[in-house]
Write a structure and sequence with these properties.
Helix content: 25-40%
Number of helices: 6
Oligomer: single chain
Shape: globular
């Protein structure tokens, strides 16, 4: 019998590739996808992706989705909600949770410290892998993903709404990680080997949001003082008339 696990799902490329590897390994049974969402706006924290698009992803993957809503955006609120969620699944025999993080040591330590409070363990399938090789593998596997959020210290409004290709990766500035692991950009994955069907979306307007303090769970690094905010691209479900 395979060990039951929780998968921390953001809807982006790192999550998609990590989940693919977990499913291919066939060692664990992913019983639920967990996504942190803003309670007021019903969007994925930091990514800004609508709730309905996450539901479409989960439906296409075929794994149950649970949304953990946060309102204040503080670490304390996040940690309290996460502990409640984990204890509920621990009572069902789940002892481990999987994350798509790649190399942020402080974020890994934060996650592990939170899990230690409830005597649970973290798994990191992509940990310390070469990010250039990871994004190339992602593309070779047939995954497709859209830039839904970009840190303006690194990228511009021209990058949001763009589908990641090898050309896009080749043309990134030298200070931008190929997987955006330092918080340079976030994505929404809409096609690939983990999906039974493509997630059809419409790319809408681009919106700039001034910098706000985010919870630690958001993989967002702000190393440069010139960071003033983030560009978001509005993504919505494509209607039948748009096809």
């Amino acid at each position: 019998m395979k060990e039951k696990v929780i998968f921390c799902w953001s809807g982006g490329k790192d999550s998609a590739l990590a989940l693919y590897k977990v499913l291919q390994e066939n060692k664990y049974e992913v019983v639920v996808l967990l996504t942190t969402m803003n309670e007021t706006f019903k969007r994925v924290s930091m990514h800004g992706v609508r709730e309905e698009l996450l539901e479409m992803q989960a439906d296409s993957i075929g794994i149950k989705l649970e949304k953990m809503y946060v309102k204040e955006g503080s670490n304390a609120e996040y940690e309290k909600k996460m502990e409640e969620f984990l204890l509920r699944y621990k009572a069902k025999g789940v002892e481990k949770i999987i994350f798509g993080d790649i190399f942020l040591d402080d974020l890994r330590a934060y996650r592990e410290a939170n899990l230690a409070k409830v005597n649970m363990q973290a798994i990191f399938p992509l940990w310390k892998k070469d990010t250039k090789k990871l994004i190339e593998e992602f593309l070779l596997l047939g995954f497709k993903t859209i830039i839904c959020c970009a840190n303006d210290a690194y990228l511009t409004d021209k990058h949001v709404g763009e589908i990641i290709t090898q050309k896009f990766i080749n043309e990134l500035p030298n200070n931008v990680d190929p997987c955006g692991e330092n918080g340079e950009f976030h994505t929404f994955c809409f096609e690939g080997p983990i999906f039974k069907k493509k997630i059809s979306v419409t790319i809408g307007e681009k919106i700039f949001r001034p910098l706000e303090i985010k919870i630690t769970d958001d993989k967002c690094s702000l190393p440069e003082s010139k960071t003033t905010g983030f560009w978001f691209c509005e993504l919505s479900k494509r209607t039948s008339s748009e096809k």
